[in-house]
Amino acid sequence: xxxxxxxxxxxxxxxxxxxxxxLAVLLFLMAMSVFERFTVEREMASRRExxxxxxxxxxxxAAALEAQVEYLEDERGMEAEIRDRFDVxxxxxxxxxxxxxxxxxxxxxxxxxKGPDEPWYKFW
Length: 124
Fold this sequence. Notes:
Elements: H1 2-14, H2 17-73, H3 75-86, H4 119-123
C-alpha cells in the first residue's frame, strides 16, 4: 500500500502544472537554440557558396594569366606584344603609315551656323 501511495505522489509531482511549466520553458529555450543554429547554418552555407564561386572565378583568372605568361615567355609572343604596344620595328624593316586619301571627299553637312543673334547664344 505504501508503494501505491509513493507512486501516486511521484505521478502527482511529474504531472503537476509546475513540472509541466518548467519542461515547457526548457523546450522553448531548446527550440530557440535550434532555430539560432539553423539560421547560422543557412548563413554559412550561403557564404560558402559565394566563396566557392569566387574561388572558381579566381581559378579561371589564374588559368588565363598562366596562358598569357606562357605566351609572353615565347620569343614570338614577346615580340608581338612589344610591336603591339610600342609600334617598333626591327633593323632592316620599314614602317608604313597609311593615311586617308586626299582625293576622298568627306561628307559635309550643311547646317546653318548659329550666330550671336540666336537667343541661346546670348544666354551663354
